[in-house]
Design goal:
single chain, about 475 residues, PH-domain like, seven-stranded antiparallel β-sheet, six-stranded antiparallel β-sheet
Length: about 475
């Protein structure tokens, strides 16, 4: 690609016009309502003026946005009255993500987001609409050519796996507060006569029905969100980069330098563990903000496929995931005691609020015991002196998580001991990687912790 100046595809003007229209949507709507009171002609005229103004703004912004690539840097210029120019050295470009939303897909174009090492939450340069040829040339000029198209290391998420992913999506914790907020509106009587009805709920049957209704609503929202996020998911490995494509409404193609991968999380959620299914997530450094969906290495796979998958796509983290050390048997009761104490509070509150629901209290306590025993069975670690990895496994937020990290990329190593742990010669060891992701294994034998510290950090001292 030469150093001549280029404009974005004309689809960018339409996108800018839509954004401008959305910015004035509220005052325009007020004007339409006010104008409609006098005459329909005034309302139509005001609406046309609003659309015309948005179109003019979109075209003006489009014409003021240009870019060019030299041998050393990408130059991006935008702004009408006070133009800003961003210069990104090519040797600092760490990722070039491809995005195709509804407008881009309508015109058969795509957008590029340029990320640099040490970047913030947003991409340094966003080129919202480029033709396929221009995008291909620009990616090659920035050192991120579409070389993955020729690789045989490729894996796609099948339609059946997508549906299972959506059905077992571990996002209820995010959706339930929204549904709970709607329930609160109903309880305050803001919708119809719901206040009187909810105050008359006094039986176990009705409580169970309401809880099931909230869960089903949350599940439906989570299902739809997962289908939109992971539809068409595909991963490829070429040279020293991973290319991950996903999305239904907005297609994304994310480029991840392998050198920036600090580790991988193997997540076994409550709904997936009985079926032997897991999710793989990336732990990344210096690539700006990466939400959960963007950090997904693969949404769903059988547990026994994890080691072959890593050997194929991330051999830097490949190898056995079997744990070498586990908490001793005397730590079992400590794993059980904590969730039982936590469960006593909601169990007592439930009995006081709805006396007829008292049978649920022992069920909650029994569930707490099961969770404690499960956390004890899951906990463990692996640190082989001849292996460049460190592996920790623990239960976190009801999910069983295995963290596989590069030993030299561990950002923080923590060892803590309570008074009770000191008496029992136990300790809690934790490891932090990437942007603060931390996993801790509780109640580990003191000699194991000391050996762990010596191997991972020869200067470490057990507190």
């Amino acid at each position: 690609m030469t150093s001549e100046t280029h404009r974005l595809h004309v689809a960018a003007a339409i996108e800018q016009a839509i954004k401008a229209l959305s910015d004035v949507a509220v005052p325009l709507l007020i004007g339409l309502v006010a104008g409609g009171r006098h005459s329909s002609f005034s309302a139509i005229l005001l609406g046309l003026l609003g659309v015309g103004a948005a179109a003019a703004i979109g075209i003006t912004r489009w014409r003021a946005t240009t870019y060019r690539v030299t041998d050393r840097a990408l130059h991006f210029r935008s702004g009408v009255f006070s133009p800003d120019e961003t210069v990104v050295p090519i040797d600092r470009v760490q990722a070039v993500d491809t995005i195709a939303g509804p407008i881009q897909r309508l015109f058969g174009v795509s957008g590029l987001q340029v990320q640099t090492s040490g970047g913030g939450e947003k991409a340094e340069v966003v080129l919202s609409a480029l033709s396929d040829d221009r995008a291909r040339e620009l990616r090659a000029a920035l050192g991120h050519a579409d070389e993955a198209e020729q690789t045989q290391r490729r894996r796609r998420l099948t339609m059946g796996s997508l549906l299972v992913t959506a059905l077992t999506a571990p996002q209820l914790g995010v959706v339930l507060p929204v549904v709970g907020g709607l329930f609160g509106l109903l309880q305050n009587g803001l919708v119809g006569q719901s206040e009187t009805w909810l105050r008359n709920v006094n039986s176990v049957h009705e409580v169970v029905l309401i809880a099931l209704g909230l869960l089903l609503a949350a599940w439906a929202l989570s299902f739809a969100g997962s289908v939109v996020a992971f539809s068409g998911f595909e991963i490829q490995r070429a040279d020293q980069r991973l290319r991950i494509r996903r999305g239904l409404l907005q297609r994304r193609a994310v480029s991840v330098p392998v050198a920036r991968v600090d580790g991988v999380q193997v997540v076994e959620s409550v709904l997936r563990r009985p079926f032997g299914l897991v999710t793989l997530r990336l732990e990344l450094t210096s690539l700006g903000g990466r939400e959960t969906a963007q950090r997904t290495l693969f949404p769903l796979m059988p547990r026994h496929d994890v080691e072959p998958f890593l050997a194929t796509f991330l051999p830097e983290l490949g190898g056995s995931l079997a744990l070498q050390q586990h908490p001793p048997g005397r730590a079992r009761r400590r794993y059980v005691l904590r969730p039982v104490l936590v469960a006593l509070v909601p169990a007592a509150a439930l009995v006081v609020a709805v006396p007829a629901a008292w049978p649920a209290a022992p069920v909650l306590l029994a569930l707490a015991v099961v969770l404690g025993l499960d956390a004890f069975a899951a906990a463990g670690l692996r640190l082989d002196p001849d292996d460049g990895r460190v592996i920790l496994r623990a239960r976190h937020r009801a999910a069983r998580i295995t963290l596989v990290a590069r030993r030299r990329r561990v950002q923080e190593l923590g060892v803590s001991r309570t008074v009770f742990q000191r008496r029992a010669q136990l300790a809690t060891v934790s490891v932090a990687v990437a942007r603060g992701t931390r996993l801790a294994v509780r109640h580990v034998d003191r000699p194991v912790v000391e050996e762990f510290l010596v191997v991972l950090d020869p200067r470490g001292q057990t507190p």
